[in-house]
Amino acid sequence: MPVFPGLVTERLSIRAMGPADADSLWRRRNDPTTAEFQSWSLPFPRERAESMCESFAAVDGPQSDEWWMAAVCDRSTGDVIGDLALHLTFDARSAEIGYTIDRSVWGRGIATEPPLRSRIGSSTTSACHG
């Protein structure tokens, strides 16, 4: 069984990111309004998005002391509408969660979908978003 079997909320499905997600990641990371709330520089290279998606797909879910990323999808359409970054520490007893939601779905309550932290399973969770 995979370490990260995925999560499902009322409107979202969160699954492991794969190479096919590079284009949506690249577009999201190159949106100036979205990038304003994040730490990356523009322009965000397509090659970096491809490399990130390939490297996250090569591991079987989050690992302690490493960043890992999942695709946030609209449950009704399957479209990727964001990403969720997860950094586990202290043997997965603590988690830092960051997420980026595509600007096209801002204002729809996606970022406040029922608490993902309760489904991660760590004893300490912090979150940041953009």
UniProtKB/TrEMBL annotation:
<dbReference type="Pfam" id="PF13302">
    <property type="entry name" value="Acetyltransf_3"/>
</dbReference>
<dbReference type="InterPro" id="IPR051531">
    <property type="entry name" value="N-acetyltransferase"/>
</dbReference>
<protein>
    <recommendedName>
        <fullName>N-acetyltransferase domain-containing protein</fullName>
    </recommendedName>
</protein>
<dbReference type="GO" id="GO:0016747">
    <property type="term" value="F:acyltransferase activity, transferring groups other than amino-acyl groups"/>
</dbReference>
<dbReference type="InterPro" id="IPR000182">
    <property type="entry name" value="GNAT_dom"/>
</dbReference>
<feature type="domain" description="N-acetyltransferase">
    <location>
        <begin position="11"/>
        <end position="113"/>
    </location>
</feature>
<dbReference type="InterPro" id="IPR016181">
    <property type="entry name" value="Acyl_CoA_acyltransferase"/>
</dbReference>
